[in-house]
Amino acid sequence: MSISRQNLTVIIVTFKSENVIHECIRSIDKEIKIIVVDNSNNKEFKKDLEMKYKNVECILSEKNLGMGAGNNLGIKNSKSDYVLILNPDVILQKNTIEELINASKEISTFGVIAPLEVDTDNPNFEIEKEVKLNFESPFNVKSVDGFAMLLNVTRLNKFENFYFFDENFFMYLENNDLCKRITELDEKIFVIPKSKIKHLGAKGVSEKYFKEIELSRNWHWSWSKFYYQKKHNGFIIAIIKFFPKFLGSLLKFLIYLVVGKKFKSQIYYNRAMGFFNSIIGKSSWYRPRVD
User: 8-199 belongs to which homologous superfamily?
Assistant: First the structure.
């Protein structure tokens, strides 16, 4: 089965994304269903979206679920064979969806396909080092970034005990974990170079919350790195790899504290605490303090 506009749903998880999401939605074909999962539980945001766009359904989460659980909620509420996961700060080109549809007719089987980020200095995929790429046709990759990935939901659901995003991740590396598990099932992940998107990068949340979001990102980046390593390679290897970084973050926290650079010291404190909480097995509980 190939992709069509009728069996595809776009899922966008948002948090304080009012300033950026409209450009994303307007870049998506109007006949394609969009599910927005809003983690800030903003009723006015939901009302505004559903009034402006006939193809948008906005689900308000009762609490800030993060990216993985938010995407899972969107997948659960979709009724299509395929879902395109997008961040709210991603903009599609006019032919982005069409090229994904065309590619799905040529590729025999796939677990995930993804468009190509137009900024070639920041590729949205990982490959084996020895692989040479052909940007004229779809190419197989190890993983793709979570800000734009299309999941073959019906196919993946046929695997016993398969689950989509690991909800232990609040943010960061949930896409790497999903891609790793998909490739371990011998499913293919492709990038479609003729299908292009622009990721604005760290613009998904209003800039007025910049400091709180940066503190949250640093905490969760550290937490997720240790958890991912522990999940796939064991606790001992994770400790060997990341304990020096934990100590380094503590040291930088103290240095910046002494020299009076408060925000810098907070950044490294949060990095250290993210590592520490992951090391002792605590959940990814940290949430940005926004009104």
Answer: Spore Coat Polysaccharide Biosynthesis Protein SpsA; Chain A (3.90.550.10)
